[in-house]
Every structure is written in C-alpha cells, then in structure tokens.
Amino acid sequence: PDVPKIVVCGSVIGPVSDALAANSARHWTDDTWLGYPATIAWLTDLLISRDARQLVFIAGDLHFSAVAALNFRHGEQQVEALQIVASGFYSPLPFTNSRRKDYCWQQPVRFQVAAGYELESVAWQLTDETGHFLRLDFAQQSEESPVANVRPETDVDKRRPRTDWTLKISAWNSDNKQLPAIDRVPPVNRWWQVDEPV
Question: pTM for the whole thing?
Fold first, then answer.
C-alpha cells in the first residue's frame, strides 16, 4: 500500500561527502551506506522488486540535520526515497561533528555502486545548531480518484478512494523555537516538504 515506509538506522545514505563524490573508488573509507556498494546494490534490487514508494530513511550519525532526495537505479528501473538526517539532542564534543564544508549540497551527486547500479543524492542542510531536534508531521489525505483501466462504456462512474500522504519536516531548538533551514529546500516531489517558520 501507498503508506510511508520508515527505515531507521545509525548510518546515512545521503548527503554524500565531497571526498567520496570526487573519488568513489575510496568508498571503503566512508562511514555511510556508500562504504558498502554491494549492500546498496542489494537494497536497490529489494526496493525495485517491492515497488517501494514513500520510503523514508531516518538516521543520525553526522551530528547535524539534513534531508536528501535519493534515487536508486538499476538499468531503467528506479525507486525514489527520502533520507532524513536527525541530529541527537546532545552532541557536546564539537570535534566529532561533521562539517558542512565537507559535504555536497544542493546539487545531484551520482555514485556508481556496482555494474548497472547507481545512486543519486541531492541534499540540503537544515541546521547544525547545538541542541536541536527535528519534527516530522505525516498527514493522510483521501480523495476519490478514477479507477485505472476503466472501460468507458460500462464503468464510467466507478471510482475508488485514493490515499495520499504528506510529510512536513521542521527543525526546533531546545527552547521550542522553530529554526529556519540553512539551505532553502525546493519542492522536490509532491509528498514531502521542509516547513519554515512563519
């Protein structure tokens, strides 16, 4: 069904570091999923075979918050997903935090994970403020939509309900104030958006 599917894990898929974008042969030095190309190829096959939709990966690890639009490809087949990087509330050791300048932002980065397999990531940083959290608001909207493959002469008025989901992502500080995103995040696809303070 077209409901959001959430995968929570420690390591991220995107954003992609500048070092890895410049030299994908050094994947073995990367502390993300991209350090394991065979696993990304396996995951790509799994997602395509399941026709995964509205897929959200949530991870931390980088000690800042960001979103990345992901596109897993194998030949002509592809699956889109969203990566949310949600920093922990408390990261008191600044030298362990990833730095904005070390990552590719607001531009597509294509990574060949295996023969015929490619991952594309476009990332935007939300915040690197100490002591923040992300809020994810999923909302379900139903509407009537035409049945696929309707035969006009017999099924003109038949309709079935369709469920659409939306996701709003917002960053908040420890004083419960909404934070503006560092990067302006354009509408990437129809179902998720970054919510800015008004």
Answer: 0.82
